[in-house]
Structure formats: C-alpha cells, structure tokens
Write a structure and sequence with these properties.
The complex is a heterodimer of chains A (194) and B (614).
Chain A lengths: L5 H4 L6 H28 L12 H24 L3 H32 L8 H33 L6 H30 L3
Helix pairs in contact in A: 2-5, 2-6, 3-4, 3-6, 4-5, 5-6
Chain B lengths: L8 H9 L10 H5 L3 H6 L4 H31 L9 H4 L3 E3 L5 E3 L1 H37 L7 H21 L29 H30 L12 H32 L10 E2 L2 E2 L7 H35 L6 H14 L15 H29 L8 H23 L2 H7 L3 H31 L5 H27 L13 H4 L2 H31 L41 E3 L2 E3 L15
Helix pairs in contact in B: 4-6, 4-7, 4-18, 6-7, 6-8, 6-9, 6-10, 6-15, 7-8, 8-9, 9-10, 9-11, 10-13, 10-15, 11-12, 12-13, 13-15, 13-16, 15-16, 16-18
The chains are: A mainly alpha (194), B mainly alpha (614).
The structure holds protoporphyrin IX containing FE and copper (II) ion (CU).
C-alpha cells in the first residue's frame, strides 16, 4: 500500500515507512526484553537447572551474521547496477536464513536429547525454547520478506528506483534487526549460563 | 474542487497561504469512495475508521455495562428471583424447586471478568483512543490522512476480530473466562481449574492477542503520523494538547502491550505445552499436578508492566480531549501549556516504573515495595499539575456550559476524587488493609472508569458536528451529564466505606457473612444507582443515533469558534480533508481572548507587531 501523502512526507528527512519500521522494532524489543527479564526474575527464585547453550547455536550465529553481510553486499550491488552479484548475494542470504532456522531446530534437539531437558522439564530450558522460538517466528517473517525481494530480483527488470531502493532498505533493516536480536539472546544466554 | 461556488473565509486564507501538494490531482478520492464497501466497510479514510471505532465501542459499552447491572442485581438483591432473565442467560440462571431463579456463581465470576476486560480494553482503549486519535490526529496536524491508511484500516479490523472472538466465547458451554480481567494464574494457566479456564480462557488469550496487534498497528501509525506528517508551521510546540496526549498514549501502548503478549505467551505454554512458568505444586481434586517450580508472581510482573501504563493509556486521551474542550469553552488559553505537555511526558515515563504497587500484597520484597511507593506517590505530582492547570483555565473564564464543557468539568472532579484515593493505596502499609477490597474498586472506577468516560463524552459532544455534520441534543446532553455525575458518585462513594470496612472485591454474595451483612441496604442503594446511571447512558445512545440522522444541522464550519485546524475543513469533509491546498500554521492552538479578539485560528498569520505567545 502506498502512502497517500507522498509530497508531504518528502519534506522530512526520514521516510515515514522507515520510521514506522523502527517503531515496530522498538515494540519487538519490548517483547524480548520482558521475557528475558522474566528469565532473570525466575532464575533468582531457585529450582533452576543450569546448562551451557547447545553448540548448534554457534552455527546459527555464523549463519545469521553471514546473512547480514550478504544482504548488505546484495544491496550495494543493487545500487551499483551489478545485477548478477545482486541476485547472487540475495540468494546467498536466503540460504543462510534457512541455515539459521535449521540449525535452530537442531539446537532444540540438542537441548532435548544431549543436554536432556525436554520442554517442560525445567524453566531454565523452557525459557530458552520460548525465547528462541519466538525469535525464529520473527525470522520467518524476514524469510517471507526475502522471498518477496527475490521475486523482485528475478522477475522485475533491474532498475534503481526510489521505491525499490526504499523497499530494499526496509527489508535489510528488518533483517539486521532480527540478527541483532539473536546476538542479544546469545550473549544473554551465555552471560546467564542458562 | 477548490472552485466551489462560495468560498468561505477559511478557504480564501488557505488558498492564499496554504501549500499545494497536488493531492487532488492523483484522484485519490476515487480509490477511497468507489463503492459501498470501500466507503463504509473497508474504508481507509481516517474519519470513517474513527466512526467505526466509536460505534463498535458503544456496542461494547452497552454489553459491558449491561453485565455490570446483572451482577449488581446479585449483590444488591441476592434473595430476589432472577428467573425473568432466564430467556437471556439460559442455564446460567439456576431455578430451584420453589421456582426461584438465581445467578450461577461461576457465571457471576464470568460476568465480572468480561465486564472488566470489555470496558478496559474494548471500550476505554479502542473506543476512546481509537476513535479520537483517528479522527483528530490528521485533522489537527494538517495532514490528508494517516501515514499508512492501510495499516489504519487493519488496526480496526483486528480490533473487530478480537471483539468477535470474545463475543463468541460468551456462548461456550463452559462459559467465557472467569478468573478476573487480570487473568492471574493458576486460574488462567490450568484449563481444568474452573469452567471458564477451559475454552473460555483460550479464546480470551486469542482475542487479546489480536487486540494487541490492533493497538500496535494503530500506535505505530499515530506516532509516525504525528512526527512526520505535520503541515508547514505545525511545530511540536504548536500542537494542540489532544495530539500530545494521543502521541504519548501511542508510545505507551507500543512499549507496554508487547509485554502483555509475552505474559500471555507463557500462559499458553503452561496451558498447552506442559511447561511450568507460572505453576507450582498445585493439587486439583486431591491430585498433585506435575507442574513444579513455576512462579505466579512472574505473571503479575508481566501483566502489571502493561497494566499500569494501560490505565494511563486510557486516561491520557481523555485528559487531552478535556484540555482542548475546556480551553475552547472557557474562551481562554489553556493555563500552562508547556507544563501540561511536560506533565503528560512525565506521567508517561513514570507510568513504567510503578507497576508493582498492584503487588504490594503478593509477597514482593518490602524493600522493593518502597521503591514503588516512592514513584507511585511522585506520579501524583504531574497529575496534580494538570488538575491545577484545568482549574486555573476555568478561573475567570467566559464559560459556555455546553454538554461538552460540563463533562470536562465533571472529568476534573472525578479525577481529583479518584486520584486522592490512589495516594492512599500507593502507600504499601495502608494497602495491607485496602488491597482487594471495594476501596480499590471505588478508586479505579472513579479515576479511570468514570473519568475516562467523561472525557470521552466531552469529546463526543464536542466533535459530533465534525463527525456527522449535525449537533447532538443539548438538553438531553445536560440531563445525561447531571444524572451521570450524581449517579456515579452515588454508586462509587459508598464503596469506599465498604472497602475500609474490609469488604473484599469479587465475592458472589455478602449476606452470608456476619461481618458484612449489615451493608445490605448500602448494596441495594448502589445497585439502584447503577440501574439509574445505566438508563441515562441509554438516553445518551438514543441521542447519539437520533442526532446522526435528525440532529440540528451544522450551518457554519466552526460552531464552537475554535482555533484548531479541523474546523477549517468544509462541513462535509471529503477524503483528504481540505478540498484545495493544505493550510499552513502560524501560531499555537490557544489564542483565545488575545488582543481583544475572541479567537484567532491557527491558520491566521501573526499581525504586524503581534507577539507570539510562548
Ligand atoms: C494519583 C495517582 C494514582 C495512584 C497513586 C494510584 C495508586 C493505585 C494503587 C496503589 C493501586 C493498587 C491497589 C490495590 O490493588 O491494592 C491502584 C489500583 C488501580 N488503579 Fe490507581 N492510582 C492512581 C491513579 C490511577 C489512574 C489515573 C488510573 C486510571 C486511569 C488508575 C487505575 C487503577 C486501576 C484500574 C487499579 C486496579 C486494578 C485492579 O486491581 O483490578 N489509577 N491504584
Ligand atoms: Cu497502577
């Protein structure tokens, strides 16, 4: 849906859509902030099984950090009119995104089977499940966005227009944002020893 | 379009000084009003969406208030035969062998729960902020519409969906959720805990999840619009107080509603996935459950982290409306405009660090309580600043006692009465006695329930002409006001005494307790007052709908002689709000009685030698 009031909005430095995206990110931050403070409150009350985070989660980290890099490269090549590199790095981003989701799944299996804490066994693991699953849900949103971007890359003629630039930027900001949330969660888990 | 037959003075000024955004060259109108559906149902026009929020809010207010009448009948007349409402309530009225019908106790709890949920979320959040943020933000800041009309429309439809699900839950065989509007575990987290905890609770959560989506979509839009779409000259310090209030309200919603979602997410995990976030060592029917190690207090933290900002999400828009209405009808600038803005900001900030005052009696550490006592008492300061400024705005004013103005004054009265009892409750030592008694019920109904309704009524009477091009009946409006003012005090004043005597809230009947049975007459009195007040609201609803079609027609575009931009639009405001250019703004919104002039619209440039206020 186009913003109805184009002329008015161009008077401002930041595009309203971008601003709206930042506002949504702030709201998502609250979601994770509240659950992680719940984690701390609950941890302080004892009956809490400590465990180290599954190794798989480091693979997830590699995937999502890599994907932030590739989407940035893709964006750069999009601006430079380098069509094939633009497409290549966008595809790479999607592959890494899928890699992230898959490694998350194996991470959960690791907690369940190797560490031995299935869902419901102890709140310490339950919090990890809930936080990471909630995060993956947000990553799924990003994957849909990536699919749209790929659709545009392969079905539209490569032209650097204002609208497409904005669209790309919005997708990239969101993608960096879910990346950032993941890094936050990872550090949070390591720091709090789960 | 700008070449309509006779140009009003406002149009001439806008044509001269406004700026051209080529809006009407895009034929946006066609897209917005092409057929019945895009005009009335899936409308993306902010004015139509505002009306949708309002009418839906009125619908829910009738349902919610109707429920309170039924449970008040139970409290006031526990022995009376209730068989006559069996056709409406069905199996929830239990008829004994002697043919005497009484309200099923479980259903009493369901009614109380639904009443709270509906009024807090559907009426005073969506119906109030949804209506007026939508109506006034674009009109008063000089924008064609919201930043994203599409998200705006979705915000309404998510609200509608939330309402639909809650409504359907009323018809479950196990009944709707019945564990209180705060949905504390274990009643909310164990499906087998009570009838209402089964399907009713699931639907409650799903409904609220959609509701949160609606609030977030709306809020993102309001914030973006206020920050990015103001017309030329409309600096933040020239915004009417309504806009400041809606703006801060939206920020509060954006930061607090996700936390409710987190809390409910964990509830759902406990219900369905076998986790124990909130549950610990519970016996049901003599059987110990598997759940160990959970903490119900955790839920209370998450809930009240939303819950307290939520009460300000309800009251801030009302404050904004009242400030505006009061200045216009007292023909005086609002007293201490900047202090009002800073108070709104301070209230908004403080509302995030007082939540545990709802948990003084939940076993939180007394040292932590002290922290919350202090900030709770500090929040009374900006609240008092606002009250002071309203009174000084009235002082020496050339007051027009219209219905809108009366409700604004009534708002201040209610806010003072209810705010003062808040200071009692905010002291953790006094709260030991008062917590979970009728004192709390009296406190929040006066300060939030009635006050917010008064703000909403002030807004409706004042902006009805802008919405429907007609006036509401003033005589009925005044009857509505005086009856509601006296009636509301008659309902809630006595409840303070019940509370001080220790009468607990959420009890099905009191006549079986020796300690409380002597309040029977008082309870009857309260119930009768509630019925009278309910009847007066029906009068309002009749006035509202009658006036849409038959009210006195608006003949000039600025009937209240107000300064804000919405009154510079044509009586029949089309899509895009201004038929030609967009007006530019040259002064703040409160130039009333300045330099001997009754009022000076925001679109009028400063005259030579004129000094701008503040
Ligand atoms: C002057 C500032 C205020 C103070 C110091 C204050 C203090 C308190 C305290 C301490 C409680 C908890 C009582 C208990 O459960 O034992 C309470 C309950 C409540 N307050 Fe206030 N309050 C203030 C203003 C407001 C306002 C402006 C609103 C709404 C617009 C409001 C709405 C509520 C509600 C809804 C509850 C009860 C919720 C429930 O338990 O169901 N209060 N207040
Ligand atoms: Cu509170």
């Amino acid at each position: 849906m186009e913003l109805a009031i184009k002329n008015q909005s161009t008077r401002n430095k930041i595009h309203p859509k971008k601003f709206a995206l930042y506002a949504s990110c702030a709201s998502i931050v609250m979601l994770f902030a509240s659950l992680s403070s719940g984690f701390i409150v609950r941890q302080a009350q004892g009956n809490w099984v400590e465990f180290g985070i599954p190794n798989m989660f480091y693979w997830s980290t590699a995937c999502i950090l890599g994907s932030s890099l590739t989407i940035f490269l893709s964006y750069t090549f999009f601006k430079k009119n380098a069509t094939s590199l633009y497409k290549l790095f966008l595809v790479a981003t999607l592959i890494l995104a899928v890699g992230f989701c898959v490694s998350q799944y194996y991470g959960w299996l690791e907690i369940k089977e190797v560490i031995g804490l299935p869902l419901g066994a102890n709140p310490s693991a339950d919090f990890v499940y809930v936080l990471t699953m909630l995060h993956v849900a947000h990553v799924f949103g990003g994957v849909i966005v990536l699919f749209t971007a790929l659709f545009h890359a392969f079905y539209l003629k490569h032209r650097v227009t204002k609208t497409r630039l904005l669209r790309f930027e919005l997708s990239m900001i969101y993608w960096h944002f879910v990346d950032f949330v993941w890094i936050y969660l990872l550090i949070f888990f390591i720091y709090n020893q789960s | 379009m700008a070449t309509k037959s006779v140009l009003a003075p406002e149009d001439i000024l806008i044509e001269e000084l406004g700026y051209e955004d080529h809006f009407h060259e895009h034929h946006e109108d066609d897209k917005y009003r092409s057929n019945f559906f895009s005009t009335y149902i899936f409308s993306m026009d902010h004015k139509m969406i505002a009306k949708q929020f309002l009418v839906t809010g009125i619908f829910w207010a009738i349902i919610g208030a109707g429920m309170s009448i039924i449970f008040r009948l139970q409290l006031g007349f526990p022995e009376e035969n209730m068989a006559w409402i069996k056709p409406l309530l069905g199996k929830w009225i239990v008829v004994n062998d002697a043919g005497i019908g009484s309200l099923a106790p479980e259903f009493y709890y369901a009614l109380v729960t639904m009443h709270g949920t509906i009024l807090v979320f559907f009426v005073l959040t969506a119906g109030l902020s949804g209506t007026f943020s939508n109506l006034l933000i674009p009109l008063q800041i000089g924008a064609r519409d919201m930043a994203s009309p599409m998200l705006n429309m979705m915000s309404y439809w998510f609200f509608f969906l939330a309402g639909l699900i809650m409504f359907l839950s009323l018809f479950l065989s196990t009944g709707p959720f019945s564990g209180g509007w705060t949905a504390y575990p274990p009643l909310s987290a164990l499906p087998q805990a009570s009838d209402g905890s089964a399907g009713g609770m699931t639907m409650w959560v799903v409904s609220l999840a959609f509701f949160v989506v609606s609030v977030l979509l709306g809020g993102i839009n309001y914030i973006t619009t206020v920050l990015n779409m103001r017309t030329k000259g409309m600096t933040m310090w020239r915004l009417p107080l309504t806009i400041w209030a809606f703006f801060v309200t939206a920020i509060l919603g954006l930061l607090s509603f996700p936390v409710l979602l987190s809390g409910l997410l964990l509830t759902m995990c406990d219900r369905g996935l076998g986790t124990s976030f909130y549950l610990s060592e519970i016996f049901i029917g003599g059987q110990a459950l598997d759940h160990v190690g959970g903490s119900p207090i955790l839920y209370q933290h998450l809930f009240w982290f939303l819950g307290h900002p939520e009460v300000y999400i309800i009251i801030l828009p009302a404050m904004g409306l009242v400030s505006e209405v009061m200045s216009v009808h007292a023909r005086k600038p609002i007293f201490g405009y900047k202090a009002m803005v800073y108070s709104i900001l301070a209230i908004g900030f403080l509302s995030f660090i007082v939540w545990a005052h709802h948990m003084f009696m939940s076993g939180v550490n007394p040292f932590i309580s002290n922290f919350f006592v202090i900030f709770t008492l500090i929040i009374a300061v900006p609240s008092a600043v606002k009250v002071f400024n309203w009174i000084t705005t009235l002082y020496g004013g050339n007051i027009r006692f219209t219905s809108a103005m009366l409700f604004s004054i009534g708002f201040v009265s209610m806010f003072i009465s209810g705010g003062l009892t808040g200071i009692f409750l905010g002291n953790s030592a006094i709260d030991i006695q008062m917590h979970d008694t009728y004192f709390v019920v009296a406190h929040f109904h006066i300060v939030m329930g009635i006050a917010a309704f008064f703000g909403m009524f002030a807004g409706i009477y004042n902006w009805f002409p802008k919405m429907y091009g007609r006036f509401m009946n003033e005589t009925l409006g005044k009857i509505h006001f005086w009856g509601t003012l006296i009636g509301s005090y008659a309902i809630f004043w006595p409840l303070h005494y019940l509370g001080m005597a220790g009468v607990p809230r959420r009890y099905y009947r009191f006549d079986s307790f020796d300690t409380f049975s002597h309040f029977a007459t008082l309870n009857k009195f309260v119930t009768i007052a509630a019925i009278v007040v309910f009847a007066l609201q029906i009068l309002f609803v009749i006035n509202f709908f009658y006036s849409i079609y038959k009210g006195k027609k608006m003949t000039t575009r600025n009937p209240w002689k107000a300064n804000t931009l919405e009154w510079t639009t044509p009586i029949d405001t089309g899509h895009g709000n201004w038929p030609g250019k967009i007006p530019t703004v040259h002064r703040w919104a409160y130039d009333y009685g300045k330099d001997g002039k009754d009022f000076i619209s925001q679109i009028k440039p400063l005259e030579e030698g004129e000094v701008e206020v503040h």
